[in-house]
Specification:
single chain, alpha/beta, eight-stranded mixed β-sheet, 35% helix, 23% strand, globular, binds 3-[(4S)-2,5-dioxoimidazolidin-4-yl]propanoic acid, binds fe (iii) ion
């Protein structure tokens, strides 16, 4: 984007070290960055600043990255599943707990029972740790309501979080998470309700930006997910898929066939599915929190993703069952240690590639002229540090649509 009026910037950040993430780290040392109307108007070397701003802010040699993007969460829910955590530690599997009516269904019971205000209050508590760590965009899925009214309640709560906090919320309808008890043994009828009742109502009220599903033996088959994707397509909604988390169901290839924004988890993905994702431009969203919590030993095939040139994102999967995670930075470290990503890949995975996984790479995910001025400021010596440490938060503050928000130190 061409910037014409360069004497009229709103804010000029000076003495910054930029990792623009526009290709590799995209490092610019001794940098300045100008903001106008919430967008990046110019960036480059301090001694080449071509204009003036009403307000100058000194970054004091802090690093500035694109605001982090958590592209896969289920952070709107009620209750918690600490008891199941204890059961899993005692040897019961996630799938066994789900078959016995626990797992996702136990969160469905709690979420259905919560009024909209209570659900908002419970969910609101999970957001600040992410924002304090430099997150400026978060995706939030439904999937614990499993009927029209309760799925819409979840999506409204998610949208409301984005209205009350300096974060953009992208919402995803995950009605096809599992079949609710009233449809037990009648899963096809539930899928019909997802396709013919829920998706049209949610599309009409513009409550979701995308449609997702759980393609797994304990959830829905590729044939059932095909119906859901057809309905999404009919209503102009993008699709995503929880694919190959616990077994290879051919979900990656199915997602690619529908030009999905992303296929997520992928521990059991085969090369054929990955090649199809590469061709379709479908992003691989890796979720090290769930891998870790389930003590999974099969790693997502990172080498195959690299070989085929599939963009890799990572996310928290923040959910009460398999990933009760409150830190995206921890996921960078786990992405490196557990999955073998490089620190540079890990940072790209929560910026540039996470934006692609949400279909918003045109406006966020890198520091480039014309993009939204969503940024995170860090007290670090190099961007590698964001993956290196565990349990430290070096975030100084964020800039959301041009406005600075200092981090609140506890
Ligand atoms: N895969 C996951 O990791 C979450 N959902 C899904 O389809 C887990 C959700 C939960 O256990 O509550
Ligand atoms: Fe998930």
């Amino acid at each position: 984007m061409q910037v014409t009026d360069n004497r009229n910037w709103d804010t000029l950040w000076i003495n910054a070290r930029l990792a623009t993430m526009a290709g590799g780290y995209g490092i610019v040392e001794n940098a300045a960055l100008a903001i106008k109307d919430g967008r990046i108007a110019w960036l480059g070397a301090m001694d080449a600043v071509p204009g003036e701003a009403r307000e100058t802010r000194d970054a004091k040699q802090a690093w500035i990255t694109p605001g982090l993007i958590d592209c896969h969460t289920h952070m709107v829910y009620a209750g918690n599943r600490a008891e199941e955590f204890a059961m899993r530690l005692a040897g019961k599997s996630y799938a066994d707990i789900a078959r016995d009516g626990g797992g996702i269904l136990s969160t469905v019971r709690a979420t259905r029972a919560a009024g909209e205000d209570d659900l908002y209050a419970a969910s609101e508590k999970r957001l600040p740790p992410f924002l304090q760590e430099g997150v400026t965009t978060v995706e939030i899925k439904s999937g614990y309501g499993l009927d029209r009214e309760n799925e819409m309640k979840m999506l409204r709560v998610a949208r409301k979080l984005g209205e009350h906090y300096p974060v953009s919320v992208r919402t995803t309808f995950l009605g096809a998470h599992t079949a609710p008890p009233e449809y037990k043994g009648n899963e096809d009828a539930y899928i019909d309700a997802v396709c013919n009742d829920m998706i049209p109502a949610i599309a009409k009220e513009k409550l979701a930006d995308a449609v997702d599903g759980f393609c797994e033996t304990i959830a829905f088959s590729p044939a059932q997910m095909t119906k859901v994707f057809e309905a999404a397509k009919k209503h102009g909604l993008a699709v995503k898929l929880h694919a190959e988390q616990l077994s290879d169901q051919g979900g990656a290839a199915l997602a690619a066939r529908y030009n999905a924004l992303s296929a997520d988890h992928l521990e059991f993905a085969c090369e054929e599915g990955i090649a199809a994702m590469a061709k379709a431009g479908t992003v691989a969203v890796l979720l090290p929190g769930a891998f870790y919590m389930l003590r999974e030993t099969r790693k997502p095939p990172v080498d195959l993703l690299r070989k085929h040139g599939v963009a890799i994102a990572i996310a928290s999967d923040c959910n009460p069952g398999t990933s009760p995670v409150g830190s995206l930075l921890l996921m960078l470290n786990m992405g490196c240690i557990l999955f073998g990503l490089t620190p540079e890949e890990a940072l790209a995975a929560v910026t540039r590639n996470a934006a692609r996984a949400l279909g918003i790479e045109g406006s966020v995910g890198t520091l480039e002229v014309g993009k939204t001025a969503d940024m995170a400021l860090w007290d670090i010596a190099s961007p590698v540090e964001l993956s290196y440490r565990l349990g430290y938060n070096p975030c100084i503050g964020t800039v959301k649509q041009g406005i600075y928000h200092a981090r609140h130190h506890a």
